Design the sequence.
């Protein structure tokens, strides 16, 4: 059974309700039909039921089991307006502005549904930027208790089953924080360890990545990763974590013997923490496009309730996978 099939099976065991607000996107319609067919989650779509069902008919898929919420006609609109106003009034929100936003911005409407406990999570981003997807989540749901910052990660299911956890890895941060400080890198490592335990397996082994291994190069970027490693050891001593490590030293036992002898992580890493967003975003896309990996995300860690982004280059199959992962996250909230 593949990694994503195992996640789908977990999702079926405690079926959650996930909002897919991008109801005009054909990939989203195809994914919604597949999610319902496989019993992975209950689906809410936002928009005109007539338009959504017309789209389903054109694509020849069955969406009869989904729930469609039209912001213009739902009896819950007033309650959602009040909730959005109360949540954001300190930032200048008015009831009139809240109503306008909810009638026109399906992503924010979906987030408010999650805030109101009318849905367990949301998946979007197939036709919106990461900023547009994440902004309402951060503004309305905010961070989970005890979390220092929200970060993004990908679950990477690679063909190299002898590496990672049967080929599965977490890559972070590949979608959100552009140039994290050492303190932020340490926090990303800790959040990623929790995400690994929730979604992949019990034993995260974390590599703090760099272009240097154990002082082999001198540069401020190397110093940042070395400092992040030190902070992580101080704040999270329970983690199996080491750095700074080049990717080959993190993943290859043979290389680790030469470059990082005695490292607790060398050659065994299954969680890769990148030094900045450039490295993370480039890295995951290379592994996906040239290495044949399945990439699910960017998933978010640290938000009070599950909201996950999609690459605008995603397929409908990718959306199904992220819905399944979001449902499993929702089981753990």
Sequence:
């Amino acid at each position: 059974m593949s990694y994503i099939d195992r996640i789908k099976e977990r999702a079926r065991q405690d079926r959650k309700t996930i909002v897919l607000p991008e109801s005009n996107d054909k990939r989203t319609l195809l994914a919604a039909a597949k999610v319902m067919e496989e019993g992975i989650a209950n689906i809410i779509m936002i928009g005109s039921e007539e338009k959504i069902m017309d789209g389903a008919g054109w694509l020849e898929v069955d969406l009869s089991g989904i729930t469609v919420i039209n912001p213009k006609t739902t009896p819950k609109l007033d309650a959602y307006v009040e909730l959005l106003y109360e949540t954001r009034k300190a930032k200048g929100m008015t009831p009139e502005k809240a109503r306008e936003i909810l009638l026109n911005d399906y992503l924010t409407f979906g987030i408010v549904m999650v805030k109101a406990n009318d849905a367990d999570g949301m998946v979007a981003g197939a036709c919106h930027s990461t900023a547009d997807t994440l902004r309402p989540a951060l503004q309305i749901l905010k961070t989970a208790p005890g979390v220092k910052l929200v970060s993004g990660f990908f679950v990477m299911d690679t063909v190299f089953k002898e590496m990672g956890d049967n080929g599965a890895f977490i890559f972070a941060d590949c979608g959100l924080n552009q140039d994290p400080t050492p303190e932020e890198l340490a926090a990303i490592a800790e959040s990623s360890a929790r995400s690994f335990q929730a979604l992949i397996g019990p034993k995260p082994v974390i590599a703090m990545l760099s272009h240097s291994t154990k002082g082999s190069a001198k540069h401020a970027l190397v110093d940042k990763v070395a400092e992040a490693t030190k902070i992580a050891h101080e704040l999270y001593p329970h983690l199996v974590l080491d750095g700074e490590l080049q990717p080959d030293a993190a993943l290859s036992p043979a290389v680790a013997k030469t470059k990082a002898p005695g490292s607790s992580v060398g050659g065994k890493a299954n969680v890769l923490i990148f030094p900045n967003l450039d490295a993370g975003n480039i890295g995951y896309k290379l592994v996906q496009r040239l290495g044949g990996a399945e990439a699910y995300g960017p998933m978010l860690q640290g938000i009070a309730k599950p909201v996950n982004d999609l690459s605008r280059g995603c397929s409908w199959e990718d959306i199904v996978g992220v819905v399944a992962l979001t449902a499993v996250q929702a089981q753990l909230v």
Q: What stands out?
A: The mean pLDDT is 92. Residues 182-199 form the longest helix (18 residues).
